[in-house]
Design brief:
This protein is α/β, with parallel strands linked by helices and about 450 residues long. Helices cover about 45% and strands about 15% of the residues. It has 2 domains: about 190 residues, NAD(P)-binding Rossmann-like Domain (Rossmann fold, 3-Layer(aba) Sandwich); about 230 residues, NAD(P)-binding Rossmann-like Domain (Rossmann fold). It binds uridine-5'-diphosphate-xylopyranose (2 copies).
Length: about 450
């Protein structure tokens, strides 16, 4: 049985540790956040991730998974140490590595036997070499170790499924033997395992996320043109998707991307390019288009409310950055709420899962009990997150509860013609029906 320590009990670390335990390894998940570890030790789960609670409980009961705040305890029997701490954006967009630095130094001070250190967190190209230097400098006496890059490709809301059924496993290291051992850990996944050097593995992660973000900004730019020309972006995306070189995934126009990865990873990659003398103008455009999607929806809402948002009651349907998560990091709802309030609107919000997070991140937001409470007295509703439960709302009842039947569909959840037949003043993203007189 392999023995693994995972540092960081966040979305990435907790899922990674739990899944390795589920595959049969003995895993200790370490975090410096004592409250988070205490909650996990008491059987609580600090994040919402479908399937996680049951998988954690099963593996804790089987004695394969435990939690600690202590490095000596976490590293005692470990052969592998995965670093999965946060890598948030710094002031001018670069990835802030202070947590990676803290983890690397704690490992160096504690380790008393050879370790394979695996960078799971998304880190700028070159960080693997830097982590090795940090550890070499901090070790009180030399203890052998190797560094392997193993970037995560987990989508929140489907993280366990993505871990257990990956399209590929990417490994990078200068130490072939260490890389082979990390590859062994992943064999039960029966997925393609690509081995390369450290920097290339680190770049694969950034390039993959930046490409996915580019697709989203691309389809949003096309949607904005469709809006003016009367074409329907959903049909356009469907037509494009038949081309195997394009594919249908990640072509959903809407309020743009959010979350703890795309925004920071595109910014970090642009920053890496700029400080090395490149001109990443495409990445800059990707970020600008994404920012403008939030602003466009404010303009449309203002126009549909007689040109002014002052004293208007606007309800946000959905607050999490995407469905099936409670994560609101860089969620469009945060910027939309701020922009609406900036123009004097009274903003209310509802989310099936993220309400406890919204209460902290948007203290001025008035939280509704459910979509119908949200609709009561509203001058407009904006669909911000495409939760499944919004797809089956009793829309006649919603309309009857609103002060004005104005619905801005930020995620193209509804059929424009159907809503207009029901008497809604409906606006989607790039649905263009108006021009067709639909
Ligand atoms: C983070 C990054 O966002 C992602 O880009 C990267 O690929 C993996 O790490 P996430 O799991 O969402 O993903 O981070 P977060 O939810 O912030 O959890 C990080 C955890 O690390 C926190 O619980 C924090 O307490 C912990 N941590 C931080 C440590 O245990 N030790 C430290 O020194 C610093
Ligand atoms: C992403 C990557 O998919 C994953 O591989 C990486 O490891 C971490 O970042 P995540 O951010 O959890 O995962 O969610 P994802 O499902 O990729 O969506 C990211 C954002 O793009 C969300 O805000 C979503 O609303 C938006 N999105 C996604 C679109 O606007 N349109 C789309 O077609 C797809």
């Amino acid at each position: 049985m392999k023995n693994i320590c995972v540092i960081g009990a966040g979305y990435v670390g907790l899922v990674t540790g739990t899944c390795f335990a589920d595959l049969g390894s003995r895993v200790t998940v370490l975090d410096i956040d004592e409250a988070k570890i205490a909650k996990l030790q008491a059987g609580g789960i600090p994040i919402y991730e479908p399937g996680l609670e049951e998988t954690v409980r099963r593996n804790v009961a089987a004695g394969r998974l435990s939690f600690t705040t202590s490095y000596p305890e976490g590293l005692k029997e470990a052969e592998f140490v995965f670093i999965a701490v946060g890598t948030p954006s710094g002031v001018d967009g670069e990835a802030d590595l202070k947590y990676v630095h803290m983890a690397a130094e704690s490992i160096a001070e504690t380790m008393d036997h050879p370790l394979i250190i695996v960078n799971k967190s998304t880190v700028p190209v070159g960080t693997g070499d830097w982590v090795a230097d940090v550890i070499r400098r901090k070790q009180p006496r030399p203890v052998p170790f190797a560094v392997v890059s193993n970037p995560e490709f987990l989508r929140e809301g489907s993280a366990l499924q993505d871990f257990l059924n990956p399209d590929r496993v990417v490994l990078g290291s200068l130490d072939q033997e260490a890389m082979e051992k990390v590859a062994q850990l992943h064999l039960p996944l029966r997925a393609p395992i690509m081995t390369t050097d450290l920097r290339t593995a680190e770049m694969i992660k950034y390039a993959s996320n930046a490409f996915l973000a580019t697709r989203i900004s691309f389809i949003n730019e096309i949607a904005n043109i469709c809006e003016q020309l009367g074409a329907d972006i959903k049909e356009v995306a469907a037509g494009m998707g038949y081309d195997k070189r394009i594919g249908r995934a990640f072509l959903d126009a809407g309020l743009g991307y959010g979350g703890s990865c795309f925004p920071k990873d595109v910014k970090a990659l642009e920053h890496m390019g700029v400080i090395h003398g490149c001109h990443p103008q495409l990445l800059r455009a990707v970020m600008e288009i994404n920012r403008d999607q939030r602003r466009n929806v404010i303009r449309v809402t203002r126009e549909l409310l007689d040109g002014s948002l002052r004293d208007k009651v606007v309800g946000l349907l959905g607050l999490a950055f995407k469905p099936n998560t409670d994560d609101m990091r860089e969620a469009p709802s945060v910027e939309v709420a701020h922009l609406l309030r900036h123009e004097g609107a009274l903003v209310r919000g509802y989310d099936p899962v993220a309400m406890h997070v919204a209460a902290k991140m948007l203290p001025d937001l008035i939280l509704a009990e459910d979509p119908y409470d949200l609709a009561t007295g509203a001058d407009a509703l904006i669909v911000v997150t495409e939760w499944n439960e919004f797809k089956h709302l009793a829309l006649e009842r919603i309309k009857g509860l609103m002060r004005r039947p104005v619905l801005i569909d930020g995620r193209n959840v509804y059929d424009p013609a159907r809503l207009r037949r029901m008497g809604f003043t409906y606006s989607g993203i790039g649905r263009g029906y108006e021009k067709n007189g639909g």
